[in-house]
Amino acid sequence: MDHLIISGPCSAETEQQVVSTAVKLASFKKIGLYRAGIWKPRTKPGMFEGVGTVGLKWLQNAKRKSGLPFTVEVANAKHVEEALKHETDVVWIGARTTVNPFIVQEIADALKGTNIPVLVKNPVNPDIELWTGAIERFVKAGLLPGMVHRGFSSYRKTEYRNQPMWQIPIEMKRRFPEFSMICDPSHIAGKRNLIQKISQTSLDLHFNGLMIETHPDPDNALSDCEQQLKPDDLLSLLNSLIWRSEKNIDTVPNNELEKLREQINQIDEELLFLMGERMKIVDKIGLFKKENNITILQVERWNEILRRGLDAARSLKLSEEFIKQYFDAVHIESIEHQNKIMNE
Ligand code: PEP
Ligand code: MN
Description:
CATH topology of the largest domain: TIM Barrel
Strand content: 5-15%
Radius of gyration: 24 Å
Order of helices and strands: EHEHEHEHHEHEHEHHEHHHHH
Structural class: alpha/beta
Number of helices: 14
Largest sheet: 8 strands, parallel, barrel
Number of strands: 8
Bound molecules: phosphoenolpyruvate, manganese (II) ion
């Protein structure tokens, strides 16, 4: 499934929209799978909740006219039953479903015995075990899962609708190298102008494909109107992407990359050695605090370390976010070291 492009509307709205979008996308000769949501999980009641089963008939018609296989979101066993009755080629599990092991199991049981591939979106929350568990349930049911990275919800508002947290899909690729990882930049971005950048990042991380929402009149779409692209804009975006290959590395003469990687390995070794040395000093401080009955946590001292780090970061071109996370991790490790000493 390498280089798979999945596209189509967030929601099926009318038969005309579903069929004409499919025919248009098929004409690009770049789309491998057509998508449309017919049962829509919406955050609030009263929003458009999808056209329901009739949409499957529209999708069958779209398949006949365009030649494109199609995928729909299923969120319970009944949806699976309907999807199977209407020549659905692939089903996907939405982010709000992956969070619920009961429903994931119900869907896995309903699909058992078919050879329908299942694309499993990441859960809404950044819980790698929940995503892993869902994949395992489908594998156990004898099905072929793929993974879709659509970003993670967070309380803190950023430029993204859903935080990419790339380390999570990267870890999933490590855990399940045999299954495809598709990026859904539409739901990560939440708005059109970020989709290209996110798509390229995913390809540079060797993802196997993209799922991008398209609509003939995005501004008037009944769901996700800010993030859907007109089909022609999708085509320009796809033409702008660079698909790099892991295999190219072996064919690069005089492998410059190997030398740079060796430098990185050495620097990492030095960093780890220095961290070990740092923790030995932390242990001495822990002993001192214990003997003098001083608390481990000294908030003022901690603020000072952070401030110094952030000052240094600016001139080193390291991001503030990274430095905060780095010092948080170092701090937790230091406190654990000192705790151990206090309790000895
Ligand atoms: C969708 O693909 O339209 C959708 C509802 O996605 P998610 O489950 O990722 O929110
Ligand atoms: Mn959507």
